[in-house]
Amino acid sequence: MRICSRNIRKLVHHVDDVIRWDYDVLCLQETDVPEYEVGSVTNTLKAHGFNIIWADPTNLSRGGHGRRAAIVVKGPTPPVSPTRLIDGDAKWLRASGRWVECLVPCPKGSGHIHISCFYGISGASDRTTMEHKRIEVIFAAAMVRMDQYNRNP
């Protein structure tokens, strides 16, 4: 199974690239898809044999609400979003709009892979900004969530 993680910088402009790339799973950050275009992008990918799990909506840098991260899976069997989130960290991560996770079926029914995708915050590398503090909190919650994978997908 071929898995890739990358910043796509506006998925709306790169849907054809995603379709052309030879990966089974793509973890995409910086998708910046406005809410009014989510359905169109989803339908285009589905028409080409892909399934997509979106992060929850969040504010986009240029205004409006949209999706910042997504996991795209090739094949007819859709990935499954975990429904049992065991603590506030996992729920908070999902609500941040910067975290998406799913269970991807392995070939030939041999199990699944738990995949997550996390998109940071622009400007967070400057330790003097609030974004830096916010990204530290998001990152800590992500570490707690990943530690839970083997116990509670």
Radius of gyration: 15 Å
- Please describe the biggest sheet, giving its number of strands, its sense, and whether it closes into a barrel: 5 strands, mixed
Order of helices and strands: EHEHEEEHEEH
Distance between the ends = 20 Å
Strand content: 25-35%
Count up the helices: 4
Note the overall shape: globular
Work out the helicity level: 25-40%
Which ranges are low-confidence, i.e. pLDDT below 50, for 5 or more consecutive residues?
none
Q: How many strand elements?
A: 7
The average pLDDT value, as a whole number, equals 84
Class by SSE composition: alpha+beta
Kindly describe this structure.
The chain is built from four helices and seven strands. It starts with a strand and ends in a 5-residue tail after the last helix. The chain is α+β, with helices and mostly antiparallel strands. The protein has helices at 15-20, 35-47, 88-96, 130-148; strands at 3-7, 25-34, 50-54, 58-59, 65-74, 99-105, 112-118. The chain is globular, with a radius of gyration of 15 Å. Strands 1, 2, 3, 4 and 5 form a five-stranded mixed sheet that branches. Strands 6-7 form a two-stranded antiparallel sheet. Helices cover 31% and strands 30% of the residues.
List the helices and strands and how they pair.
Blueprint: E1 3-7, H1 15-20, E2 25-34, H2 35-47, E3 50-54, E4 58-59, E5 65-74, H3 88-96, E6 99-105, E7 112-118, H4 130-148
Parallel strand pairs: 1-2
Antiparallel strand pairs: 2-5, 3-5, 4-5, 6-7
Helix pairs in contact: 3-4
